[in-house]
Write a structure and sequence with these properties.
The chain has 363 residues and is mainly α. The chain contains 20 helices and 2 strands.
Length: 363
């Protein structure tokens, strides 16, 4: 047992010695940082990454022109899946070293099973942008996508993502430029669908349908594009096509709540209440917390004078939303049901709550 432990200790010393020889003339701080990264590669203990970061930060402070320190800081944060910080260090490299920094990112470098190349740094920026998007920080998201494009200029994904972000920043013309750039790299359904959505928002329905049809040619199982075609048909008052398109979207993706809702609205407008209730009943089972669907279903039950079912639906909503001013109309609707059922006390209670919430909504 003692011999075994002694052998293990000797092997660890040899392993560290070999690593030091491979690293060569690197500074002590860079060497120490990479040893911690190597330890992390074997143990997946993020404490090692934190220790590595300390070493790389020290190296940056002592040798601010050592681009390798910045690159390792970005790599280390990416290993921790802190892509925002990783991207921040890449930003620093681009700002400080410009084309030299970009050239370094495009080089392939392997270390302990990790491959650091342009795809690695591109993905860091893509992941950082996703983090920003989740926080609705569209400006920083856009900056990350633009840097991703600088690293990987032929990335269709980044051009489409940047276009989407421009749309969120209310810059549709810039978005269109990026969507077309993605198409110029290679035809793809995402760009076609995005351009179609651009024209739909501009109410240029013929142009929108032209691009949506291209999506169908690429992928006839794209549920979202059939939903969008249905919206176009609603705009042109082509009810038959709208119904067919929404049904197709639902068939391809049973979790597309908006398709159910809009199909039900079409039936309501045609006074086909039975069909509308059938659609919404299915939707209510799939999306029990979608209060818009539940509210519309309650209204239809009221319309056909099935007050008990309407009462049940409205009560379900109220139990979930509480006294939320946004959903004050549910209390008004339920008060109306109680009135029809002759339940005066409940009618008065819900009417008072509605008035209180109405007042709160205006404050």
């Amino acid at each position: 047992m003692v011999a075994s432990n002694l052998k293990g200790g000797i092997m660890r010393k040899v392993w560290v010695f070999i690593l030091l020889c491979v690293i060569g003339c690197a500074s002590a701080t860079m060497t120490g940082g990479r040893i911690h990264i190597q330890q992390f590669a074997h143990t997946q203990d993020t404490t090692e990454v934190n220790l590595a970061i300390e070493q790389f930060l020290k190296e940056k402070a002592e040798n601010p022109t050592n681009i390798d320190a910045y690159l390792w800081l970005a790599r280390a944060y990416a290993m921790k899946r802190n892509y925002v910080m990783a991207a921040a260090w890449l930003d620093t490299i681009i700002a400080r070293f410009d084309s030299v920094g970009l050239a370094q990112m495009r080089k392939k470098y392997s270390f302990e099973g990790y491959t650091f190349d342009r795809f690695f740094y591109w993905r860091v920026y893509e992941n950082a942008a996703t983090t920003y998007l989740n926080k609705k920080d569209y400006r920083n998201a856009l900056n990350a996508y633009l840097h991703a494009i600088r690293i990987l200029p032929d990335s269709i994904e980044s051009y489409n993502n940047a276009g989407y972000t421009y749309m969120q920043l209310n810059k549709p013309d810039s978005a269109l430029i990026f969507y077309h750039k993605a198409l110029s790299i290679h035809p793809n359904k995402i760009s076609y669908r995005n351009i179609g959505s651009f024209y739909f928002k501009k109410n240029k329905i013929d142009s929108a349908l032209k691009y949506f049809d291209k999506v169908v040619q690429f992928d006839s199982t794209d549920a979202l594009v059939f939903y969008l075609i249905g919206l176009c048909a609603v705009r042109t008052k082509d009810t038959t096509k709208a119904v067919e398109s929404f049904k197709k979207a639902m068939l391809l993706d049973s979790t597309m709540a908006d398709a159910y809702y809009n199909l039900a609205l079409l039936y309501v407008n045609q006074k086909k209440y039975k069909e509308a209730i059938s659609v919404l009943t299915r939707a209510h089972k799939i999306f029990p917390d979608d209060h818009d669907i539940s509210f519309l279903l309650g209204g239809l039950y009221t319309e056909i004078k099935d007050y008990e079912k309407a009462l049940k639906i409205y009560t379900e909503i109220i139990e979930k939303v509480g006294e939320d001013p946004k959903w004050r109309k549910v209390y008004a609707r339920r008060a109306g049901i109680y009135y029809r059922l002759g339940k005066e006390e409940e009618y008065k209670r819900d009417t008072e709550i509605f008035k209180k919430l109405e007042k709160q909504s205006k404050e």
